[in-house]
Amino acid sequence: MTGAHPFFLSIDPVAIESVCLDFLRTEYNGPTLAECRPNWFGVDDYLHQAADSSRWPSNIRYDPDNDGVLIASLGVHEHWNDCQHKQYSRNLGTGKGIELFKAHDLHTGKITNKGYSY
């Protein structure tokens, strides 16, 4: 394999999809139909719903432990500040949401812009 490939890791499925969508929106922002689809209005509606139970249909209640305590969110959803800095609320010190940080290059051990993890 040649070139660098990003590696994404998270225990939060909503957060990792939010980050991947931000990368897709940046990479596929071209003039053709296929290149602009990640930027269509509403493409991230499912992430907004997953992150906030007030957006769920009225008949949906999620209590995986069967203890009567409903889950209010399936994860964190937010977008980065811009495609140059790629900062989320934890990077900016404004919240407890997503933090994106650069991983070490597996071959050199140096921190690079080639790989990302959060």
**How many helices in DSSP terms?**
4
Low-confidence stretches: 114-118
Main β sheet profile: 2 strands, antiparallel
Identify the strand order in the major beta sheet: 1-2
CA(first)-CA(last) distance: 23 Å
Radius of gyration: 17 Å
The fraction of residues in strands falls at: 5-15%
Oligomeric form of this entry? single chain
Share of helix among residues? 25-40%
The sequence of SSEs as H and E is HHHHEE
Shape: globular
Question: Which structural class should the secondary elements be placed in?
Answer: alpha+beta
According to DSSP, the number of beta strands is 2
Mean pLDDT: 84
Total domains, how many?
1
Structure description:
The protein has 118 residues and is α+β, with helices and mostly antiparallel strands. The protein has a two-stranded antiparallel ribbon. 11% of the residues are buried. The chain has helices spanning 13-27, 33-36, 45-51, 89-92, and strands at 101-104, 111-117. The chain has one domain (13-117). The two termini are 23 Å apart. The longest helix is centred in the first third of the chain and has 15 residues, at 13-27.
What features would you highlight for this structure?
single chain; 118 residues; alpha+beta; two-stranded antiparallel ribbon; 4 helices; 2 strands
